[in-house]
Structures are given as C-alpha cells and as structure tokens.
Amino acid sequence: MTASDHPFDRAIALQPADDGTLRGATSDEYWNFVSPFGGVTAATALNAILLHPQRLGDPLSLTVSFAGPIAQGAFTVATHLLRSNRSTQHWSVQVTQGEQHELVLAAMAVFAIRRPTWALTEAVPPDVPAPADTPHAIPMKGLSWLQRYDMRYMRGRMLEDNPDSLTYSWIRDAPLRDLDFASLVALCDAFLPRIFLRRAKMVAIGTVSLNIYFHQDAASVMEHGDDYVLGIAQASVFNAGFFDQQGQLWGREGKLLATTQQMVWYKE
Fold it and tell me: Of 72, 46, 88, 92, which Cα lies nearest the Cα of 188?
C-alpha cells in the first residue's frame, strides 16, 4: 500500500484552488457520531501548513478550536503565515463550509527549526505489557473511525466502574502506516472521552479545543515507523458541562513524542 492509498492520506488530502485556498472533503472511513473524527480534521489543518511552500521547520505546537460541527462533504482550508523568524513561524488555519463559508474550525500553529542542545525528559512512561500481550479492543462498535486504529487497552474500560479516568493503551494505524506529524495529531485525539470512563452511560459530547505539543523532530518521528505508540490519558475535572483531558504519546523505545490537552463539552 502506497501512502496515497492509505485511508488516512485520502482523508487529509487537499487540492489547491485558484483563489489560493485548498479544497478537501470529509471521509466516511473516519466518521464519528455526527461529524468526522476530530483528530483527522485537526490533522488536515496541520497538513495544509505542511504542504505550504513557505513552511519552515517542523511543527512545535498546534491549537485547534472546533467552532462547529463539520457536515459531510467538501470544505475549504485557508492558511495564513502570520510571522516568520529565523527559528520559528506562526500560522493560522481556517476551515469553512458551505456557500456562506461558515467557520467550522480555526487553528494556530507554531513551526520551528530544532537545533542540538542539552536535553532532558523528566516524564517517565508506565511499565506496561507489550502490545502482543494485550488483546485488541474496539471500544465502541459501529463507528468507522475506530476501525482505522488497532487499539489495545491495559488500563481503563469504557462504560464500566473505573476508579479514575486514567487509561494506558497501545495504538497504531490500521492498516499499518508509518508515523508522521499528521498521523501523530490524529493519535493525540484518539483517546476515549474521559467521561465514559467515570460514568457507565452514554452522553452527548463534543471536543471544543485541542492543544498538541510536539517533542521530536521529523527524523525522530520517521524512525518510529509503523510501530505502536503508548497512549496515556486522564481528566482532572468534570464540571458545569465541560471536562478536560491530558495525554502523552510515547514511542516503544521510551521517547516522548507528543503531549496534548483538550476541553470537551458534555450534556446530561
């Protein structure tokens, strides 16, 4: 399977338009309850910058605001280079739909040229069984985007009586695909909603904002290949219709690839 044949690459594909914007379309293969899986939409926004001829370096951070539900079908992506320095670039991205160009997603990204420096990782991954020793799980049947990932949970179960919202899981693309920055973005949103770890019932939810911080350069990400990443996620508080989530994504060799936070709306 070539990169362009993979479902993920089809989902984030963008074509240039005459007005300088990019055109894309939602993918049924990454459909969630009422709109696309947010991770693949966020990855599409990052991909718009990765494809830009003025892009400098690798992504350092990505902040995504999900302004409204994305309808099935075509959308337009506009990128703007806000400022470029010797080491960093600041970008904005807007995704719109329909004849009125209604905003459905807004994002800010920082790209940077990484240079060799003193380095230290204080975070430590948990000691967990290998993926081969952990059963494959489909947490919620019937959602097409979950079919696009091989998930193996060691801690935390959906809609069960869990003592907390902490989960440990191995995850990788299905079918297999080498890791890159775009797929890393999607993986940062592939954690189960934390509220489903604390309440044994389904409620309406929707991600409002997603922050991702990248801790490795392109070469280090590419070295990961198509292996599993170890995902760790937990909430801090559920209150007044919103809850948060913090997450880490680790390589099998113990390299911290990305950290992420998000805020999620929920309804009783």
Answer: 46
